Amino acid sequence: MGRRSHSVVLGLSIWVCLVTAGSGIGANWGTQTSHPLPADVVVRLLKDNGFQKVKLFDADSASMNALKKSGLEVMVGIPNDMLSSLASNVKNAEEWVSKNVSSYIDNGVLIRYVAVGNEPFLETYNNSFIGTTFPALQNVQSALIKAGLSSRVKVTIPLNADVYQSPTERPSDGDFRADIRDLIINIVKFLSDNGGVFTVNIYPFISLYIDPNFPPAYAFFDGGSSVADGAITYTNVFEANHDTLVSALARNGYGTLPIIIGEIGWPTDGNVNANPANAQKFNQGFMTWLLSGKGTALRPGPMDTYLFSLIDEDEKSIQPGNFERHWGIFAYDGTPKYALNLGTSNSGTLVKARGISYLERKWCVLKASASLSDKELPPSITYACENADCTSLGYMTSCGGLDVRGNVSYAFNSYYQKNDQEEQACRFPGLSVTTTTDPSTSTCKFNIMIDTFGAAPPKSSLFPGKLFPASSVLLFFFYYCFFSCPSFLLALF
Ligand SMILES: *[C@@H]1O[C@H](CO)[C@@H](O)[C@H](O)[C@H]1NC(C)=O
Ligand SMILES: *[C@@H]1O[C@H](CO)[C@@H](O)[C@H](O)[C@H]1NC(C)=O
Ligand SMILES: *[C@@H]1O[C@H](CO)[C@@H](O)[C@H](O)[C@H]1NC(C)=O
């Protein structure tokens, strides 16, 4: 074969590789929930809906084990709080890779990427991870090389879109944020030298949330607002933001570094702009645009993306806003919140999680006879809301239309369900009562918690960890022995 046909074949295989790497849609699987769905249920949910990739925030063993032989490609994450240890000693990185990559690959988990940290340069972290992120990345890469995995597992750092900006708002003027520019360029060079990728999380919802003058239509994908940049017209902030990154990379000599969208999505509750209609409009607009394969003006072609998020997480910090617990395309119990065509076998309707069992149809509410001026009322509401989840209460949220009594009931019920309907969780002094009549309204759902006991004990339970059935057996013996234990059994303890 001549030189020319060689390069044609090479070019073609690179193209095929790029196209395959970029095809298929992924999802973020977060686990900051009080009642996680069993890992095998989540993996089936991903597969039933045609997802081909999944992104994890740590190497949770239940999740990783459930992904064995699933056929799903995995981006496995390293939490920020592990960065300093991985940065300080390459041995720690080698152990991490051995335990959390090699052993799973050997058992049929298709790990494609390791995400080192998660948005470590967010301004709210006060530069806490500035010194450790890059050394941790380098040590993880060395460990992957040593383990013989560097050709199949690539490193990346999921970054928040605030690491770059454009002084003029025109994407073509994009560059990295001045205070961390040198660091980012060193990271980008390292990723480029090692076949890594730039992962970025882009949130049009946040643009709308933080800027009251942001044109709402520009957050979505159906036109109605645009920004001109030379010969290019941007009709949505996602493409403009993405191309600001492409320009920043190109300006610094890395215009062809692959980009992955690590998180993109829209929440359904907890803010005036967060509702199922807007979430569906955004996510479907994005999916339709993505499936067209046209890409952006500065990066035509398919794009590798992970939706944020698969399932709601009721224990996420609400410091960024009350919407933070409502990013899922599925609710806490794996039921779809709206129709979404992912361009996969799902053909327009999301398939709900299978094999979910619920606690009894029982709710905890404010007693009809309770007085709203009862002194015990304010501290009870505060207690319930601080220990459960009241993010669906508030201006223009799903339960924002409740009256004061409804509000109180909502808080009480949230606490009761989060505590697995334990009797003492509905004992607000003289104020609460359980009922079998569903207090839900047309928009406001008073949830019944899923029964996680049969699968894995909830994190908040007396016995920690995911030790079932061992822990339940122990617990059984414990109770049994406590009351009427034959001495030969007692001897076991
Ligand atoms: C593997 O990952 C888990 C979950 O992120 C973590 O707790 C554990 O420390 C890691 N193992 C090693 C050896 O670093
Ligand atoms: C960051 O710094 C600010 C101001 O110095 C402080 O109020 C805040 O608590 C710090 N946050 C963290 C996460 O350290
Ligand atoms: C219900 O509670 C929310 C959140 O605490 C509050 O914003 C709202 O004003 C309350 N509604 C009524 C009618 O008291």
TrEMBL record:
GO terms for molecular function: glucan endo-1,3-beta-D-glucosidase activity. Residues 362-446 form the X8 domain. Belongs to the glycosyl hydrolase 17 family. One of its GO terms (cellular component) is plasma membrane. Keywords: Cell membrane, Disulfide bond, Glycoprotein, Glycosidase, GPI-anchor, Hydrolase, Lipoprotein, Membrane, Plant defense, Signal, Transmembrane, Transmembrane helix. GO terms for biological process: carbohydrate metabolic process; defense response. Its EC number is 3.2.1.39. This is glucan endo-1,3-beta-D-glucosidase. The chain crosses the membrane at residues 467-492. InterPro entries: GH, Glyco_hydro_17, Glyco_hydro_17_plant, X8.
